[in-house]
Specification:
alpha/beta, Jelly Rolls, Collagenase (Catalytic Domain), four-stranded antiparallel β-sheet, 4 helices, Peptidase_Metallo, transmembrane helix, Peptidase_M12A
Length: 384
């Protein structure tokens, strides 16, 4: 059984072959990568400058709006309870998770980084228990580390985090995680100049352009924080990586219970509904956006300013092979991000950022779905 879909897009051009493969998928179990903390740091003090106070307030509001963790500003120094103190130093550093029971812990920021919103959020992620994505126990399945390309002392930033108390809550490796370094982090000037990365993706070489984004926390970044600190809906067994057998709600497409309302789920990009059972509606100009694989050829043409989410599916226990023939997309920065890219959610964990494509590609790009359903995100910038 084969399906070939041609997609023609002007201004931003994308050609796709989609072929069904008769390969039965296997259930995957993931490594544990988390620490459970019930005593959260609540207060924070900023000891840098008044301008930085405003920025920290904004960054804290990002966490408050997306997690159950609520911080409040303290106006007086405190030493007898948990909390966070922001200080300037020569380096940007943070402990991973709570380290003290009855006193605050420090996040240090170097000069020139006081206005870097998402670098600060990165350090806050550490304080709440997030490890670097490239330090996960299962990272060697997804990236190759070239230690010989690192500057002296750089290898300490790439150790696998083996603490048995850490869990990933069945979220898979996310190349676009806020907690991921760039591919060239800690590379010597020589290797960086000639384009030899320290980290190379194993799933697909195009993932290299997604690593190190600093625009937002991803869905799975927030999911790990919330399932660790906000397991109020009894979704997982506390202290383990396992889902609860008697949970009262079953979220679909890698969603998880809303900590504000256990009768509905928080959904990944592209999904909606109380159980994340629906795909978000596309613009009316997109036309039909659901394609079931058959033995024929389907041609799709996108050449206008519109947003489309295309569902491609086949029979159960089959996978889909994608071949991208040509791409000419926006590339506003050195790193390809979700807000400007074409995205292909073909992995089993729909909470993980899909393969993002930016810029110009003439070389064929191939990948295979983990399951029998995939999403394709098209963002048309302007008509041609």
């Amino acid at each position: 059984m084969k399906l070939i879909i041609y997609i023609y897009i002007y201004i931003i051009i994308l050609f796709i072959f989609i072929i069904v493969s008769k390969i039965i998928y296997l259930k995957v179990y993931f490594q544990k990568l988390w620490i459970t903390n019930t005593n959260l740091p609540r207060g924070y003090i900023v000891s840098i400058n008044k301008t930085f106070n405003c920025l920290i307030f904004y960054i804290i509001s990002i966490l408050n709006n997306n997690t159950c963790v609520t911080f409040k500003k303290e106006f007086h120094t405190f030493n007898d309870t948990q909390g966070l103190i922001f200080k300037k130093d020569s380096y940007c550093t943070s402990h991973i998770g709570n380290v003290f029971k009855n006193k605050p812990q420090t996040i240090t920021l170097s000069k020139g980084r006081y206005e870097d919103t998402y670098l600060i959020l990165h350090e806050l992620g550490h304080a709440l228990g997030l490890v670097h994505e490239h330090s996960r126990k299962d990272r060697d399945k997804f990236i190759k580390i070239h230690y010989n390309r690192m500057s002296q002392g750089g290898n300490g930033n790439f150790f696998i985090f083996n603490n048995s108390y850490y869990y990933n809550y069945s979220t898979t490796y996310d190349y676009a995680a806020l907690m991921h370094y760039t591919a060239y982090s800690f590379a010597t000037a020589w290797y960086k100049f000639f384009g030899y990365p320290v980290m190379e993706p194993k799933l697909n070489e195009q993932y290299i352009h997604m690593m190190g984004q600093r625009k937002k926390m991803t869905f799975n970044d927030y999911k790990r924080i919330n399932l660790c600190h906000c397991n109020w809906c009894n979704w997982v067994v506390n202290g383990t990586n396992a889902y609860h057998n008697d949970r009262t709600i079953y979220c679909e497409n890698s969603g998880y219970p809303d900590f504000n309302n256990c009768k509905r789920c928080l959904c990944p990009t592209g999904y909606t509904g109380d159980l994340c059972e629906k795909v978000i509606e596309s613009d009316s100009e997109c036309g039909n956006t659901t394609y079931k694989t058959e033995e024929n050829v389907t041609t799709l043409i996108y050449n206008d300013k519109m947003n489309c989410i295309i569902t491609v599916e086949t029979d159960s226990y089959y996978k889909i092979n994608f071949t991208i023939l040509y791409v000419n997309a926006l590339y506003q920065d050195k790193i390809c991000t979700e807000d400007i890219a074409y995205q292909f959610k073909y992995r089993e964990d729909k909470g993980t950022t899909g393969l993002l494509l930016c810029g110009h590609h003439q070389k064929h790009i191939k990948f295979e779905s983990d399951r029998n359903t995939s999403l394709v995100f098209y963002k048309g910038v302007e008509p041609h």
